[in-house]
Specification:
about 400 residues; alpha+beta; about 30% helix; binds flavin-adenine dinucleotide; globular
Length: about 400
């Protein structure tokens, strides 16, 4: 079987891989996007088969997109049709302790601090945007040896010899790929569901730190996207409850600030871990998005960081004759090191600091939240970090 030539092979058509394919438009390189699932959100088409893929079973996750991500998605022509709910304020507090802070869009001179979208809508919007890259659905990368990439496709095995193979296949452990260099199991589950309260959300997101883990409510259409972090047993129990019993438990954990919780959609649970790698096992390869770093969702950073990976890779590729040689790979790593490290450390520290019932830590947290509330400059700094990452504007 003869191997096919391509400049850049992207393994994984999740939101980060799909964004990378768009960002590489006009780079002068030939691009192949291979997505393992044959069922992707409707609207996308397989360029090789021309067939409309079957609608995918939905991913219940909602993604908070930062203002900087909006700017990138606009440039990729994947923003205008995307259904989003703006976040204009974020209220942060801790259960059973003093201190709270309110971050406002006005602190950063922006119309919104961020925007909430469905994971599936985001992926669909990225896959439906005009793109000349070849796209193969139902094509799983099964092997890569530093020069040849093997894809298992619906038509059988196909091999390619890309100049650069980009792993955008999410948490790669599940696929039998080499384990990342660092892995820490948080022994927590994120329970996600759409919920509705008696009061309208008014664009406000809530992040409440409880001893079991953070509980976030993100404004989403006429209700909220709930991300409730608990230990895995508690998460399984909450998923199994009937809706009225679940709403009562949610009410007890969150309190009465929003009036009664009156409705909840389907619940699903995601196990949480921190995983990252800095070096690839093979030459001519790089990782982006969750394949490079999988973060706790506490600060809503994972996709936003991964999108910046994709954007930077495409920017560098535009000036590169050989986007897989060692100098290209090192330039990409250098360009992304600070932002990636800051995203990982910020998220991991938040989990350590707030998922803890130590009374001294609770006092320190309260003082921190109070200080943030009293110091507009500090508040603005935190907000900008969350919006733009450690390297500033894209
Ligand atoms: C509960 C929860 C809430 C979150 N909330 C936020 C948030 O508010 N804001 C935020 O920025 N981030 C958030 N995240 C993180 C965000 O979901 C991820 O960072 C983002 O999905 C990463 O995108 P990705 O494309 O890198 O990986 P994925 O979304 O995992 O996509 C990977 C793709 O690769 C495909 N694939 C897998 N293996 C192969 C293979 N071998 N060959 C070909 N294709 C393959 C998969 O089918 C999939 O389509 C949250 C995560 C969780 C769990």
């Amino acid at each position: 079987m003869e191997s096919e030539a391509v400049d850049i092979l992207i393994a994984g058509g999740g939101p980060v891989g799909a964004a990378l394919a768009l960002a590489l438009e006009g780079s002068g390189h030939t691009v192949l996007l291979a997505e393992a699932r044959s069922a992707v959100p409707t609207g996308a088409r397989s360029a090789d088969s021309g067939a409309a893929p079957i609608a995918a079973a939905g991913d219940a996750r909602a993604i908070a997109l930062s203002h900087a991500s909006r700017q990138i998605l606009e440039r990729l022509h994947a923003w205008s049709g995307l259904a989003v709910t703006p976040i204009t304020t974020i209220h942060i507090s801790q259960q059973g302790g003093f201190g709270r802070t309110l971050i406002r869009a006005a602190d950063c001179d922006l119309p919104a601090l961020g925007y909430v979208a469905n994971y599936d809508d985001l992926q669909q919007s990225l896959l439906a945007a005009p793109c000349s890259a070849r796209r193969l659905f139902g094509a799983r990368l099964s092997a890569f040896d530093g020069s040849t990439a093997t894809l298992q496709t619906q038509e059988g095995e196909r091999t390619f010899t890309p100049r650069l193979t980009v792993f955008a296949d999410g948490a790669r452990i599940a696929d039998g790929n080499p384990a990342p260099a660092y892995s820490k199991d948080y022994r927590q589950t994120a329970l996600v569901a759409w919920v509705k309260t008696a009061q309208a959300h008014g664009g406000r997101a809530w992040e409440r730190f409880t001893p079991g883990g953070p509980l976030a409510l993100l404004p989403h259409s006429a209700g909220y996207a709930l991300v409730w972090t608990t230990d895995p047993q508690q998460g399984a129990r909450l998923c199994a409850l009937d809706t009225p019993a679940f709403l009562l438990e949610l009410q007890a954990a969150f309190g009465d600030r929003l009036g009664a919780f009156v409705a909840a959609g389907a619940r699903s649970a995601f196990p949480l871990a921190l995983r990252y790698r800095r070096e690839e096992a093979q030459a001519r390869s790089l990782s982006v998005g969750n394949a490079a770093q999988t973060l706790h969702p506490v600060a809503g950073q994972g996709f936003n960081l991964g999108l910046r990976d994709a954007w930077e890779l495409a920017r560098l590729a535009r000036d590169a004759n050989d986007p897989g040689n060692e100098s290209f790979i090192s330039a990409f790593r250098r360009a992304r090191a600070l932002d990636r490290r800051a995203g990982i450390q910020f998220t991991d520290s938040l989990v350590g600091l707030f998922s803890n019932s130590n009374p001294l830590l609770r006092l320190g947290r309260g003082a921190g939240l109070l200080a943030l509330d009293l110091l507009p400059l500090a508040r603005g700094f935190v907000a900008r970090r969350m919006i733009y990452g450690a390297r500033g504007l894209p």
